[in-house]
Structures are given as C-alpha cells and as structure tokens.
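Input protein
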Amino acid sequence: MAAIEAPVVEGDTEPSPSPSFVAPLTVTNIDESQYGSQLQAKVFKLKELFREFDPPDLEVFESPPRRAPPQPPPLKTALKAPLPQPALRHLQQWQRRHVEVNELMEAVRQECIQCPELRNRLFQVNFHTTLAGDAMVTLLYHRKLGAEWTAAAERLRDVLAATPTAAAAGRRPHVIGRSRKQKVDLDASFVLERLRVGGREYVQKQVEGAFSQPNGTVCQHMLGWALDVTRPPPPRRVRARREGGEGGGGGVSSSSGNGVAAKEVEEAAAVVATAEAVETPGEGGGDGGEEEDVDGPQDDLLELYCGNGNFTVPLAQNFRRVVATEVAKSSVEAARFNLEANGVSNVFLARMASEEFAETMRSRGSRRRLEGLGPWEELRLRTILVDPPRAGLDGFTVELLKEFDRIVYISCNPETLHANLRAIATTHKIARFAAFDQFPYTHHLECGVYLTRR
C-alpha cells in the first residue's frame, strides 16, 4: 500500500493543515540495476547478525521487478515520509509498486486539482492493489464528509475505472472516504486477493485499514516456504483397529462474533473452485474400514498473530487442528471469511491477545473467548507459528515458545527476532532460515526461521 499527501493547489482557501511541508526537493529515481547488490548487502547483514546461532544456508526469495512504463508521465504529489525537517517531496512515479498504482496516483491528483470538494482538507491518500487486479483508494480528511463529497467521489471512481490497467481488467477500484469517527464506502472496503501456494489458488479478503502483506509475489514465497517446513510425513496405510470419537471436528469454530456473509463467501468460494484440486494422498480403496492413516497430520498448530488468516488458511492442511488467535476485530472477521471461502474446516479462531492466550495456556485455565476449544489435554499442540509486529514477542510469549517441539517465526524486524532467539537458544536450534525481500530498495528485510528442539 502506498500513501501520499494531498496536492496543494494555488487559490485554495482551506489548505491542508501541514504548513511546514513547503520546502521542495527532488527524489532520485531508483536504479533497478542496483537491486542485486542492494539485496546482497541486506543478506550479508542478516547473516552476520545470526551467525552466533550457526544457522543453515540462507534461502533468499527476491522481489519481482516492478511493473512500470519506461517513461511514465510526470507525477508530482507529496509523499508523507520521515524527514529531519518536514518537506514536500516531488515524485515522478511510485517506484516501489507497479504501473497500476502510478496510474491511480496520477488520476487522483488530476481530479483533486479540478475538484475543490475532493481536495478540501484532504491530507492523505492510501492506495491498496492486489495481484488479482483489485484496488482500493482511501482519501483521508480533516473534516466531515457529506453528500457533495459522495457525488465527487463517485465521479472519481469512474475516472479511476477508466485508467488503462483497471479498464483492461474490467475492474472498478473502490473509493473510500475517512475522517474522524466517519467512514464512507462507495462500494466496499475490501479487496479480494488470489494467491497461488503449493499448486492451489487461495482467495484472500484484505480489509481497508487492516494489516495485509504488501508484496503479493513475495507473500506467495513466504507461504510456500512455511507450508514446506511444516509438511508432515506422507500418510502410510496400515491395518489398524478403528478408534472413534477423536479428532478436531468439522466446521470453522469460533469463540465469538457474527457469521460471515453467505453471499460474499459463496462468491469467493467460486473463485477457489476454479483452481486446481489438491490431491489427497491415501484416499479410496480399503476393505470395510480395516485400514487407516497413522501418519500424516496428527499434530495441532498454535498460531499467534494470525491476522486475516494469511498463514492459517494454507497451513491448515498440514495439521489435525489449528488454534489461531488475533486481537484486531477487522482482521478476525476477514480471517473467518477466508477460512470459509477456502473450505478450511479444522481451525478454532479466538479473538484475544497473544499474551492473554499464552498465560491461559500455561496455566491450563479457561476464558470466555476460548469456549468450544475443548480440554487442553486433548490438544496436540507441538508446533507454534508466530508473526508478530516489529516489536517482537513479549517475554511471556517467548517463554511459551520453549514448550513447543517446532517453531515457525516470521519476522519483519531481524533485530527483535535475534533478541527473541537468544532467549530460546539453549532449547531450540534453527533448522531452516529464509529471507524474503518484501520491501525492495529499502533497508527492510523480512525473514523466517524454523526451529526444532535440541
């Protein structure tokens, strides 16, 4: 998602309340020929940071080249960026995203220049695009929005739909207006992404204002890597006496909240139904039920910070049952949608903080939000997946990691990951180590570690 500040137009009686953003400067265009060396430098720094843990060879997943015209039309907008002294930045294009964002930015700029209602006290514009071709544009204001704004936004929506990429795809970008304690949706406040992982296509609802992975292609690499490291042994058919009554139960269970809108789920599920079917080993045949799988998914997964179910949905196939937690309401609702839309039925989803869940699990206690989870002793939680914010894990959750045989830790901040790993270095070792270049041409580098008990 890209964010720009509102353009300043001479003659405005109510300029955006950012008077210090007045000193212009030029941003140097990114030299794509330097991508390899820049990534190499980030990888070297990452390896040095984790050298003390004696990790295996680093698996590196690059970001794809940006998709942009060789000579784009001039685009001058203000980019909100941390500077020693706030200043107005003039950009020719948004180098870090693809051509669609550049087209949408230019269209928004032109409309704001021509329409006082759109630019009146507008201070920021957010752009959210997907690999599937969906797009959202959110305009943020320091004023209340009324009927006149809605009419202007509808005209803007038509203009955005006429941009080359949107018109070619036959899609109309969603336009959203926000101000303090107010949100106006013209159509919808989410987009549907399609991610291909492990030979299957998944649909993913991404909600405006909620966290989602910013680089769809690299996200597919991350999911594929996590799917691989958690893959159980292939099923083995043996003669055995059937013992009924055990298992994770059918249906997506949840501790609280309303059901997912049936129409939206059906539409999303139709997308999934057109993708390739995943073969299920060990099906068919048999002689009256005297054989069963004794290998395959026998363990359960605990996932903290599950967000919209980005990892939950594809990884559920590797486990008997998944227990997932997330604290943000909008993300929990999106996760429920994504689970149902993709036909995932072995997940218990609880809206609660990771610290609260960790404390409850260690004490084998009970919480209202965990109703329906079942007795702790019936769970086989041997693998944990965490994808925390940049601050990393709190001390209580770090201690919880030590109770698991296998740990998958996805981090957007190698420094906090390093600190957390030091706390568990005596009990666990790194078995797989990966770098995901989610943010090309920046110093940021996403990474993942898969740890096993020593």
